[in-house]
Amino acid sequence: MNFDIELTSTPITSHAGLAFIGEQLTEAKFEHHMQTLVPGPTRSDRIPDADLAKTMVGLICCGKPYFDAVGDYAGDPYFPHVLGLSRLPSAPILRQRIEALPEEAGKAFRGFTTRLLARHPQQLTEELHGEPYCPIHIDVTPMDNSGSAKEGVSCTYKKFDGYAPIFAYIGPHGFMLDNQLRAGKTHCNGEGTLEWLKQVLKRAEAASSTRRLLVTDAGHDAADNLLLFGQTADTDFVVKRNMRRDDLAEWLKKAKRQTSDQAREHIDCGACGYYGQGELPLPGHPEQRLRVVWRAIERQASPDGQLLVEPEITIEAYWTSLDWSPQAIQRFYEKRGTSEQFHSELKTDLDLERLPSGKLQGNQHVLDLGMIAYNLLRLLGQQMLGSGLVPGRKSQSKRLRLRTVMQNLIYMAGRWISHARQWCLRIFEGHGWAQAALSLAPD
């Protein structure tokens, strides 16, 4: 080696970007709400519940969502200072106290999330067909926790043991509005889903005054859900229809009657698409009729030209309150696949697939704190993009992946200096993302 390696007493941090996380976490209402979870007098040396929550959010933002990781920062003055902690908890205390938080703690975490989103309404709105909408995508994604004996872990529809949480993402960039951790065997529209959907719609109304557009798959094609969506003020919906018991050939005939030769869609050399629309009664509620649009695909040959013995029929139908054309509804729903990327960022970028607690309620709290970390990282990424200072082609992107924010902002190196009772964080001016990071600093 042509250089020496030495230890220094000068505080140097490898996660300078946590300063911006700590700035966003400073909220008196959140701290007060957390204090009310433990009524009555407490020990003077007791670490506040709000500090435990902030510690966990900080760890998740660093990609370390497990309790033992707090030991990595035991001798680091920077980590507790920028997160506003009175004292850094040990790993056993962090685990015990997070798992012991009452169910009401979820209201504090969701309240903070809703207020955070409400402060940035421009991030939640997009223009669709000339009208501003606040899209809400609801989806279930399994979390693989195979080989563990955690409470609630059971066989998911992906045929591995784990959890089956449901998520609601709001806005075009995928901020998380709400979540619910559920046992792996729970059906996507299982018990309690309707109440959870009501909660999501209330939180969406509190977060944005823009008209909401709720989108979900066929797993939530239930009359009670559709009635809820239709009766909620300032809310439109697109819900994929479950076609399991329908005669697909009949739907194809109806679409052919409504589609002219000029409007017929050429899928590939062996398939054509036809579009239809109409009104159908809700199952169990014949007096209630809703608009249904659909695309029928008739395949006579495989994409490589091999003729099929019998045509294959595929129907993609949607319940909707929108007056858009069937083609526009189809194109809009196809973009819903982006929500799968949001799941991926949560489970891989934040490493939250294998939750750290053995208790279901403890893992729910960790997932709620993960929601806060997820939204803070997403917000920082969007704010840097808006500054126009993000280097390279990323400045042309609509959204920064969480991993990109973590690698270039959270993991940014800095020098932590104390002088004249003042603290200063110095970042190397030659760092490509230094100017983008400075754009986040409060005036």
TrEMBL record:
Highest taxon, organism lineage: Bacteria
Signal peptide as annotated in the record: none
Entry-linked Pfam families: DDE_Tnp_1_4
Occurrences of domain Transposase DDE (ranges): 10-434
Stated name of the protein: Transposase DDE domain group 1
Naturally occurring in which organism (per UniProt): Fodinibius roseus
